[in-house]
Amino acid sequence: MTRTLLIGIDGASPTWLARWMAEGKLPELARLRDGGCLGPLRSTPNMMSPSAWTSITTGVGPGRHGVFGFFDRLPGSYRFRPSDARARAADPWWVIASRAGLRTAVLNVPCTWPADAVNGLQVAGWLTPSARAPGFTCPPELAGELAVRFGDYPLHSDVQRLVATGRLAATRDRILRSLHRKAEIARHLLARERWDLMAVVFADTDAAQHYLWHLTDPAHPAHGAGARATVGDVVLAAYQEIDRAIPALLDAARPDVVLVVSDHGVGVEHRGHLFLPGVLDALGWQVRKRSRLRGIAQAAGRLLPAGVKHRLAARTGRDIAGSMLVGDVTWARTRAFTIAHGGRTDIALNVRGREPEGALDAEDVADAVAELCGLLADCVDPATGVPVLEDIARRGDVYAGPYVALAPDLLMRWREDLPPLAGLRCGDITVTHAEGDQLHTGGHRGDGVLLAAGDGVNRGGTVAGARVEDIAPTLLHLAGLPVPRYCDGRVVEGIFREAPEVRFDDAATLRGGPGGGDAADPRVTERLRGLGYL
What we know:
534 residues; alpha/beta; Alkaline Phosphatase, subunit A; 2 domains; 18 helices; 22 strands; 32% helix; globular
């Protein structure tokens, strides 16, 4: 058995990680790379953290584990359920390892509340309602112990209010404090005993990249803003905080092999998804009720400063600049509608007999999809006339498994080289009204990172073709356990010096249908809103 430590860095890009290592800015990660191998790790089709982290932990894609976004639509309704650990239809690797008698320590992995009953310990990730909520830790008494020793647990550095009001130095300090505290707690817990399989995830890089990517990337138009001279490169500072923590984590964990992974990459936020609801409105596929309230909301979305809009949202409990499911829809006249959350907007069809007030006959779906995709394919940047969409994917073409129906029907694949858009032009119509969070300067990209180092690892090699679904099978193989045959992923053979002899478990089965509550805890909803995800 190979004792393995997984270090997760949310949103880490292989390109930027390689650049910073080459420049000597991340010496500890570079040391790991020099003793191992580095390459891209392909994310799930929608590049969203809940789907990708759940695929990392279970070895199956969203169509089999049932988690696509922070909230997923309940079949046959216009309602959503939160995507926490109860919604997961496949066991994560630490549950499988615990059943086999191995000792596991799992810290801060997203979408893991409530914590599983493990043979070891677990601290749930940042979608936990609070550090005092039942299910935050396993064993339950660990939560109280951490509170006494370390004080309040930093579930996530919620920084949107700080960014919206221009307090970037306070934003930087909050992110770095959260990372430092998590590393401190991880050192303490990993040193308790010689664990067999371990994981610690740092998710605060996600907030840094979403809100402050313009301070890092020269390709962003706002890169030369004066804020960079005042607060520096906050994203790089966050990575350097993690980098400094690595020697102590390794000393505490004493692993044979280290895997560094991320759920997706990062690049300039193109903002195209913010204009998609307006395009669907203008094309007549999505019909909204005419109301004075909606007119006021639209005007506020156009005219009010971001900080004012956020304060109104916090006070009223309603995001006036946009929401997950577009509001005030006349369903009987709507053939397709937008679902916006997690930094992206996709499209669901309103099918008669499938949705409560469907307007599209089932036999007309294929023709409707072809027509709508043809219209949207003409979307361009109004400023340059450059096409903005790489592709529009049908859910059945990119997902497989029993829960594909939980996904939106059409997934928008935007070009990754787009600048921040000020609108969309589609044929004769131009939409400039943005619905949703406009503070993001960094957005998700399809390639995360996989770095491997340690005993038996292919030193100096380049990892190619790895996917997020491959991580759980690789961890189970390293632990000397068979890989469930149902896994979509495979053991990443490229990280090993010698071809691994993989064993399979033909008796293992998926857990059954996704569960979860019908309503989100308001503390989780507010945290997601604070990240710009609602």
